[in-house]
Amino acid sequence: MVDTDTFLTTLYVMVDDFCKSELSLEKEPGPEAALSKSEVLTLSIFSQWSRFRNQRDFYRFAEQKLRDAFPTLPNRSQFNRLARKHRAATVAFFLHLVEMLQARHVLYEILDTSGIPVRNVKRRSHGRLAGMANIGWCTRIGWFNGFRLLIAVNPEGAITGFGFGEGSAKDQPLAETMLALRQQSHSPLPSVGRPAPGPYVADTGFEGEVRHRR
Q: CB–CB of 88/188 below 8 Å?
């Protein structure tokens, strides 16, 4: 298994090379950000490592263990603003990795969904994400309040595309939307990725004869 320092260094080098070769390096107006675009992308991707229970857990680790590598690490709320600012760049790097790893050169891809909770399901009131997140059911976690994640992966487990819907969204319309967006050369939601070269495999949550034929 690769140790944390090696993994983080390798990831940063890959991200920095991508940012310098593929993304605009024009100076943005306003004061200098605490972290560069490459640093923000590296930390955003690293934060999704399975060892972290949540975003707070990741940032506690970063403040305690990563200060030497990222001496200008800001507070968590400021980092979140930077991560949202560079979301398009993060998605672009994800798509770059898919092509670099040749993750789409497979016989088939697998579609599946999962619940992503953002707050306690028993809490009342609409919350700050009203209209975007709501209550849904997931076999992995049961009832939850949040989003439904739809992902496409290859047989080795490499993610080739993803998108989000409301927690109550059904698998079939999510998949139909994703597959339609994948057919567009300039998709308004690039995170869905490109069409699979072969068929898609899915569980019974996606079944439906009419949609299957279409």
A: no
Where are the chain's structural domains? 4-99, 103-213
C-alpha torsion 121→123→125→127, nearest 10: -70
Q: How far apart are CA 176 and CA 180, in angstroms?
A: 6
Q: How many CB atoms lie within 10 A of CB 50?
A: 5
Report the alpha-carbon distance of residue 50 to residue 61 in Å, rounded.
13
Please give the C-alpha separations between residue 22 and each of 57, 147, 162, in angstroms, as whole numbers. 32, 31, 22
Digitized pLDDT (tens) for each residue of the chain, 214 residues in all: 678 889 999 999 999 999 999 887 666 666 677 899 999 999 999 998 878 888 899 999 999 999 999 999 999 999 999 999 999 999 999 999 999 999 999 999 999 999 999 888 777 766 667 678 889 999 889 999 999 999 999 999 999 999 999 999 999 999 999 999 999 988 899 999 999 999 999 988 777 777 667 6
pTM for the model: 0.83
